[in-house]
Amino acid sequence: MTGTEARRRPTIYDVAEAAGVSKSLVSLVLRGSPSVSEARRTAVLDAMARLDYRPSQAAAALAGATTRTIGVVIDDYRNLWFVELLRGLQEGLAPHGLRIAVADHTLNAHVEAHPLDGFLSMRVDGLVIATEPTGAMRVPEGLPVVVAGHREGVVPGADVVANDDRLGARLATEHLVGLGHRGIGHLTGGGGAARLRAEGFAEAMAAAGLEPRTVAGDGATTEEDGYVAAVRLLDTAPETTAVFAANDTMAMGALAAAGERGRRVPQDLSVVGYDDSPIASTHLLQLTTVDSRNAEIGAVAAERLVARIGGSPAPETAVLLDPQLVVRGSTAAPRSTA
Amino acid sequence: MTGTEARRRPTIYDVAEAAGVSKSLVSLVLRGSPSVSEARRTAVLDAMARLDYRPSQAAAALAGATTRTIGVVIDDYRNLWFVELLRGLQEGLAPHGLRIAVADHTLNAHVEAHPLDGFLSMRVDGLVIATEPTGAMRVPEGLPVVVAGHREGVVPGADVVANDDRLGARLATEHLVGLGHRGIGHLTGGGGAARLRAEGFAEAMAAAGLEPRTVAGDGATTEEDGYVAAVRLLDTAPETTAVFAANDTMAMGALAAAGERGRRVPQDLSVVGYDDSPIASTHLLQLTTVDSRNAEIGAVAAERLVARIGGSPAPETAVLLDPQLVVRGSTAAPRSTA
DNA sequence: ATGAAAGCGCTAACAA
DNA sequence: TTGTTAGCGCTTTCAT
């Protein structure tokens, strides 16, 4: 009796009827088949618009062999490094009609055990793992998977695309050495990338005949960790004139510690970060950092995915992109070259 | 002939057979029906584990009346205000077995016209619009929708949950007035929230008998805009001793401008932001700000959604949460109370 | 408490 | 170029 009851949502049947064609023709138009006459196509498109029709993704997924969507697993929305990755992925995937679905590891923890399960339930056509892969990540063989941004892939059959953290750390360190710094400290944290960066730091320091001093905060790589680590470093090794942090966030903490200790940046202390995240280019930080080329990582990941989706099984590949030093205002030659 | 060809993924049929029951029973177990004997249930669960079975979301969505997922539309992954919103949403939704799908406005722009279309195609059970609603947002009537964080809802039938921006701006301004500041400037930007905050600022200044000075950057609310606006303010009105920025990001820009002009914060210049975003609580900023209570906004949004999904149609509601001032280290009494 | 059977809205052969 | 016809893997009555 209520006139406002929600009408059943239109289906291809309704569209077909309204356009005076068969259901299959509608399906063909939907997927942009070239073998549909212009007249019919416009008729169908018209009917769709009139009825405010939306294709049912569920029905399409169920009937078809493919969902045309790639699942991206990220760690934490606050870690902005994935933003550029997504952009690169998106640009590489869109031309192939592939869409992206993003899932945060922590977010749906209660509903699904792991975002991976959600994506597998969804029958995604491919997966990008933008977190540190854990042993528990079992994916059905044959599903295209690329691990992005992390080299320690333990996902069987997955391609790996990442930046060369060790090289990046060397670039950062050599930049500081080149400026004349000798008391250079490194702020490290947990995780594989941090370890590789610490190794690169140690290598570059050794090559320059300098003693590498590496200090950690509370084990993670947050701003707080950077602050804590920097305080420790500056207090125990006051001769330090430059700091290389495992990432931009930690570098931010180092900046705070420097300010508190009355050290001006870059005059009294040089600071380098890693990632070239959005905060690095702010007026406030003007942080010299290492661009890990996340957009390119995304682009390469997209390429791999597309190749695997279309093609026959191929051996897994690993691509290591060369990071790039981005010099901004947080580094300078030390005051006195002692 | 190749032994490694990907086996067909198991379905309820396979599970049913392996467990020696009917398909329907498997379905019942899947959705936790209480009317299944313990013996059968464990048998089914066992079979699922053995076969590494994953229910097909597509099939479930197609057959069932509901998808148990809520679509959340956000603007830009870089704007971290949505992170807490998601947390609140998640906590409110998970107990009801509802999952969250997040879509960035800009991301799938090429594939789908609007994330909204994607969600409608997906047949979500509800929608959270965490962007400034535009006129083009037509959603099927009967679909639960809540606009979160923005008051200027033009989505018909949608509930609105937001913080009271005008009040928050008054709190921030009154805090500065209370500290003894008289030369207080406001950095504003584009968008509805910024406008409301500017109005609240003007109100509080008028109430204190002070002249409100409001300046914009390049029209947006980025760090760059904050920097530009603050430079303008400090250069044209050097008597300014306090700045209230439309958000934390702009405040960050103001901090940079202050530093450049040789103004120490908070001794020479007090700065207040808005949003209590993750950057505000860093050691580097220690920003006094206004907590817009995004987690609570998410919680209320979840509540509304759940009520609408379960219940009968109800008139649309609008909830305005009271924001809270968070005093940190970026504000202090002015040097000389002139 | 469990099973049988009819779709959900599409895609993908195949026919015409 | 267009129409016909089976399913895809589930949920959901309805029986039993």
From TrEMBL, chains A, B:
Protein name: LacI family transcriptional regulator
Coiled-coil region: none
Molecular function terms, GO-annotated: DNA-binding transcription factor activity; transcription cis-regulatory region binding
Domain HTH lacI-type: 10-64
Keyword flag Nucleus: no
PANTHER family documented for this protein: HTH-TYPE TRANSCRIPTIONAL REGULATOR GALS, LACI-RELATED TRANSCRIPTIONAL REPRESSOR
Organism encoding this protein: Kocuria dechangensis
One Pfam family of this chain: Peripla_BP_3
InterPro entries hit by this protein: HTH_LacI, LacI/GalR-like_sensor, Lambda_DNA-bd_dom_sf, Peripla_BP_I
Keyword entries, A-Z: DNA-binding, Transcription, Transcription regulation
UniProt keyword Cytoplasm present: no
Domain of life, per lineage: Bacteria
